[in-house]
TrEMBL record:
This is Vacuolar protein sorting-associated protein 8 central domain-containing protein. SUPFAM superfamilies: WD40 repeat-like (SSF50978). Transmembrane segments: none annotated. Belongs to the VPS8 family. Coiled coil: none annotated. One of its GO terms (biological process) is protein targeting to vacuole. Gene3D superfamilies: YVTN repeat-like/Quinoprotein amine dehydrogenase. InterPro entries: Vps41/Vps8, Vps8_central_dom, WD40/YVTN_repeat-like_dom_sf, WD40_repeat_dom_sf. Residues 552-730 form the Vacuolar protein sorting-associated protein 8 central domain. Pfam families: Beta-prop_VPS8 (PF23410), TPR_Vps8 (PF12816). GO terms for cellular component: HOPS complex; late endosome. It comes from the Eukaryota.
Amino acid sequence: MSTSGSLEKEDWLDLGDLNNAANFTLDDALNDTESLNDPLLDEQFLFDGDFGSVSNLEDSASTSDNQPLVYKLDASFVIQPHQLISNQILKNEKKSGRVIAVAERNGWIAVVTSKGQLHLFDLNGNLNQFHRGDETMGGASCVTFSLDGKYLAIGLQKGAIKIMTIDNKLYHIINEGGQPGQGIVQVLYTKDNHTVLTIDNGGSFYECKINRQWLQKRKDSLRCHVSGCNGEIVAMKLLPGDVIALLSVHKLIFYVIKPRGGQILGVFPTKYEFQFPPACSYWLGCPKSDNNNSSSPLNSLYTSELRDFRICISRGHKISVLRLHANNFFSKKRRATVINQFDVPSPLVNLHWMSTHVVAGIDAMGAVWLIDPEKKTAKKQELEDLQLIFSTPILKGSATGGKVSEAVKAVAEYACYQSVTSATSTSERFIVLAHDGLKYLEKVHEWQQLESYKERNDDISAALYLLDVCRDKVRASEEFKRESRNLLAEKTSKLLTETVSGIVGGPLSDLQSHYRKYIRVILKVCVTGGLLEFLYTTCWDRLSMDSISKTVFLEHLDEYVLDGALIDPPTPLVNEYLQHLASEGHFSQFQSAVVRFPIHTLDLHTVMSICKQNSIYDGIIYVNNKALNDYITPLEDMLAEMSEFAHRGVFSDSEQILGNKVLVYLNCCLAGMAYPFGQLDGDNQKRVPLETFRCISSIRGKEEKESEEQYPYLKLLLQFDPQQFLNVVSTCADVELFQLDNRLQRFVDTIGQVCVNMKCELSLIHYLALLVQLSERALIALPTEPIQDAVITLLKMSPWDQIGTEDAILGGLYHATPDDKRRIIRAAQNPMRPVILSFLYLSDRKFEELIKCYLDSENKEVYSVIGGILKGGELTVQESAELRSYIMSIMETLYRIDGWLCANLINDHFREVIVTMAENEEEKRKQIFPVLAGIAQLRKYANQPSFCNDNELDEKLFGIVFEGICKRWPSWMPTSENPESVDHQLISMFPFWLPLAANTDFCLNIAVGNEYCVRTVVRLLEARHHLERAFDLLFEQLEKNKENDERMGELNFISSKVKSYPSTAEWLDETMKFCSRQSTKDDNSDRMMRVFQFISERAAQVGEDSEKQEKIDESLRVMCRQILATGTRYAKQLVDQLLDSPSFSGSSFIDNGGLIMDILSSCDYEAEIYQEMIYLIREENLTFAQKLELEVSRRAPLMYNSQCITCEQPMNKSGYVFRCGHFQHIECSTSIERICTCDGIADRLVVPREKPDKPNKRDIFKNWESKLNCRVLPK
């Protein structure tokens, strides 16, 4: 059985079948930690913002015009030291010991000390009783009263418990209230007043029943509920309903003690922040009284109505709020629900639930926090820090040798359970025992807060505070709420008096600041607090007497007018306010304010005059609508003004605003709504939409006789903004006006007629979109003829200026089938509209006619159309066969239009055509060449080195491609005036197509016929293994260009830029590339040497051009290293050629040292290889000589000396005789190989390795900067 069942937020306390609860003990609950792997409180919870004005409690009340009105509340709590009690306990601290714990009941305050003494005070601070402790029992650790207040239980640090009466008589002593050798850390009375619950510092939980004094024959009944290795209980709290909250290191257990044991109601995990002790407090709402009122903690323990039973649990930074369902304690239903979980900024060590919405918390530093469990907020109070007395020595067992539970020791540092106790009479006060005395911490009441403002003469903050109370933005008692409105009226009247009295003396700016400070608050309080009558009469009458205060009042009235907060204001006030706005030039505010005042409060003549002079149409509309019940005249006037600029494409800001206002007003009138907000009355809801519709759809407009233009208003609206006007029509299409007499259908047809006559592309686009929208909403039947006329009109326009024209046409044709498609097709063919034609023909599945249209105009999109039909046309077998047959018949035309696109089409869908392209006539080959070139390129991209998997046919087809490029036949391939471009195009096709091109002599012969395709010829010769011919051709190009001295300086071994005429450097580059490709051939060194000699000869002809000489030297070095890489066959010739070069012979070692070292090292390497080979031959031959000598004689040779070669002692011990003639004792031998240590030969049959004599060398490069002075020896 799981301890906590499911640890979800809704059913974490369900324990399953209660019939089996007897088998589930408290020890089992403490041992069960598997269900705690999902800590509910480890999630990150956000803090809600503060509520109302209290969210801005910064500094004092602010009255700046740019900031909201805020005020500062005092701390929610007040700390009151009890001076008399504090003085007595501090004064006698040396004698009685330091105070340890405190308890309170029925007006008595009990304090115990570290020397075991008891001090009993009354509420006035008089010491009523004093009990001296017994040092043998240790100091006191805790104290508690019985619930009836007649007895006290004192827990001692050595394990005993004293029971005292209220009149200081020793009632009973329990020698061992817990485990033997463990101190008591907490004692708690149950409701029967003769049962004591104890917790020792071993973490054990005991129940002790005290026998009566006259029944001392039997011992006290002591029963252990938790002990031993499960000792994790650090504190307990008595809750209503006989429930005990047991606080352990890992969890909170709700436990009920029964005669034969106990029962667990539920478990809540607190497995985090172990250094801080867990704490809990409860709140029990009283249904018969106000929930905001305080309740008696003592009375709540006896009550049977547990309707609003909540528990607040804290552990470090985490807080959880639970609601216990007392009616389900002994049933299978849910017993608790998690209400809220959140974090606080500082770790708490104790807390106390003071009222429904207020929990007081104390953190580890003694700071007091106001916690709202519903809003999940925590605010630090500006109070002095409490110097809490922690029970650290007691919990760590200083009096019992430190034998305490590790669980208790973990929380001992910040445990203060015994120094904080609740008051008996009220929950809004609790007692704290601090190092500097005993203190009360009480909640501040609303009357105290108001009195505090009064003492500071802060009427503004008092008024704002009362305003928030009236608006339920600040929590207060019902009694205070009932009085708050009268108090607010009194404060407002006082503020008005202070405002009018002004300031004495000083500049005018100070008087203005004074008025702004108070008038702003008065307006806020009166408007928001429901004191409008006081504002309209008393305030306005008194403030309007002074011009400055009047101006300030009108300036601050703006925000309330715009919010519509002024209900039925007086006419003088309204007129003064509007004239003030007009005189200041605030016409935008004037326009917004007029429509928010009741019409009977306005001076119509004044308002209309100002509105007409400044074109304030909102005011004109409002007066005409409300006063004259005229909705059409303002519309006609605005349309008349729009007619002056609507034909222009660009509008000014004022013109744009007017046009948008007309559209909004038109939308409101057609929809039966008031402008700019609200609803029309019953009579106007039908009349106004109909009159508006007749107005804008009239044939002649307002001046019927003077104008011959039809539908001028519709045309005007379509000219200004067709999209927004048609959106208005779409928005109002479902109103009752358009649902009668088929009015919407006729109206839409009229708009279409106007759009077609206007020939405006934008209007026609949005008209088609409107038709589609209305048809999809089933509001109209799609008119075929208007759509057809609109489409034809758009098709005849060229070019189109709008992006969505084509989509609009397709949308209209998709939703409505035109009666005469031929007209549309003819219009789409001139100018050509490929997408429109495709839609028309494909819808009728006329594929051949569609392709013919593209072919007639030779449009290159024909290929994509054919591909699209074949891929996604969903053709039947017959349609596919007919279409392919038709395409095969027009294939020659497709060849001609675009070769590259045709190649893509054939490669994707008509690969069988490739076989028929091997033509013999030159004209046909020219026609096919662009297509074949494209196919070759596509096959190269796809890595398919074949046209049709037939070698002979592939050779012919590629021959056409090769011939076309060489002869520069016209195609899609890029061309250039440079004749070398042909060679580069052919080279770009290699090496992919090189095997196919080299199979026959056809491509080679074609390339030879073009004098500019030398590179191609070389590659073909090389592929056909004619290496000498290829090299001779390259060397021939070097010889031809050797006269171009101006190009010789442009040496570039990897040329990326094709020049008009190839230079010697480029051909040298090609030659060297050729030699590199053939580096594995034996005769490649000869070719490279020829190139090296050519470079050397050219270097001698350069002269004194330093730049050219430097490039030639670099080429010589590179070529020299490439030759040396093939061997030292030409090393001597290389040196001779280098010595002939003036730049080499006259250079310093720092310039050419690397090259010289390469030559020398190459030669040394070959010499060493030669010597190694000779030595290996000699060793192989000597092996056979050794065997021959051993066969001749196997006797050991005579010793040269009978003394040991190491110790020089005679041969009197065992030893080795070596072939060299030496003797050595076995004990003197240090060589594992058993080799003589002499300088001779270990085995005379082995010939030593002879190293070649090294010639004497001298450092000829000692001075790097000196010239080499190399001379050529006579040959």
